[in-house]
Amino acid sequence: MPxxxxxxxxxxxxxxxxxxxxFMKGTPDAPRCGFSMRVVQVLQALDVxxxxxxxxxxxxxxxxxxxxxxxWQTFPQLYVKGELVGGxxxxxxMLDSGELAELLGVEPPEAEVxxxxxxxxxxxxxxxPMQLG
Amino acid sequence: MADLAELKEMIEAxxxxxxxxxxxxxxxxxxRAIVSSERFEGLSRIDQHRLVRAAVKDRFEDGSIHxxxxxxSTP
Lengths: 133, 75
What we know:
A: alpha+beta; 5 helices; 4 strands; B: GMP Synthetase, Chain A, domain 3; three-stranded mixed sheet; about 25% strand
C-alpha cells in the first residue's frame, strides 16, 4: 500500500530537522518495546540530544512511510543526519565497535550500557515529545 | 513456521559464496541470520542488512517469519 503523502512529507521534514531522530515504540521515558528501550539506553549512554517519535499511534501508516523512504519496516529506527543508521541490532553493534560515537561526534561511554533491569509498565503514557500532524 | 534450510538457501542464492547460518531463537518465527559475504565490503551495516532482508522478503510477507535478527560480517 502506498504511504500517505502528507505523513510522508511530515516524516521527511522531521528527519531533516533533527540531526538525531529515533522512531520508537513508546517514549524515551516509557518505552513500550524492549528493542526501543535498548536504543534509548544506548543514546543515553552516549549522552546525545535526540528527537523521539512514538510510532504506536500510527504504526501501520508509519511503516508504509519508512518502507518508501528507507526500505525498512521495523521499529525502532535511528536516523542520523538524515540517514537511517539502523535498528536495535545495528545500533548496539555500532556502540560496541565505537562507530556510533564517531558518527554522532561524541566520546564513547566509559561504562558498559546497563542491562535492562525492568520493563516499564505499559499503563499511563505521557504524550510523545513530538506530534505527527 | 519458517523453514530454516530454505531461508539459508534463499540468502545463499542472493549472495553467492556467502557463509550463512540461520538459527531459531524461539517459537520458530524469531530467527537470527549470521551472514558473512564479500558483497558486504564497503557497505554500511544498514545496506548489508537490507541485502539479507531482501533475500527473505517473501517469507516476511507470507508471515512465516515474524522477526529476523541479522549479523553481518566480511570474510
